[in-house]
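Bumping my old thread because nobody answered last time. Still need a sequence for this structure:
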């Protein structure tokens, strides 16, 4: 194990299993709650986290991986500097979010959700951002932007890229 992985594994152990192993909090810890805590802390699930959780919870790596891979919101790569979530729920879909999504992908050089070549912006689908009356909607670093079309969304992302430079 590299020193980087050892450092991450220790941070995960401290995050999840600090204190008395028999404490009520540790006895209630689940694989899912462990993964959520790790993603909250690191912004993604480092590869070493799967093995670390399995070791300290006395379960198999497959048990941990089956939970981690089941939920689409878990990320296995370090996050980009900026996250854009694009709503493609029914309200946004019927308001032509697909054109907006295509224009966003074109601007960032993406074929599907992921991180652009520069590594500074990630785009993810979201089934609902909870602002249906404002659709189509995107979230830029947690800030909702609504009543968009392809041109307005592209302009917002261009401004984001310019501010990062």
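Sorry it took so long. Here it is:
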């Amino acid at each position: 194990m590299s020193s980087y992985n050892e450092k991450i594994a220790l941070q995960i152990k401290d995050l999840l299993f600090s204190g008395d192993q028999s404490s009520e909090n540790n006895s209630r810890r689940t694989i899912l709650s462990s993964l959520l805590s790790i993603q909250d802390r690191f912004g993604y699930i480092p590869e070493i986290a799967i093995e670390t959780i399995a070791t300290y919870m006395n379960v198999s790596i497959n048990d941990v991986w089956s939970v981690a891979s089941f939920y689409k919101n878990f990320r296995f790569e370090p996050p980009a500097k900026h996250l854009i979530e694009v709503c493609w729920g029914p309200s946004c879909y019927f308001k032509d979010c697909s054109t907006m999504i295509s224009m966003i992908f074109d601007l960032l050089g993406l074929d599907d959700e992921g991180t652009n070549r520069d590594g500074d912006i990630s785009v993810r689908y979201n089934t609902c951002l909870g602002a249906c009356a404002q659709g189509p909607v995107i979230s830029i670093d947690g800030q909702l932007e609504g009543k968009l079309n392809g041109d307005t969304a592209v302009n917002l992302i261009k401004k984001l890229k310019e501010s990062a430079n």
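The first helix runs from residue 3 to 17. Let me know if any region looks off to you.
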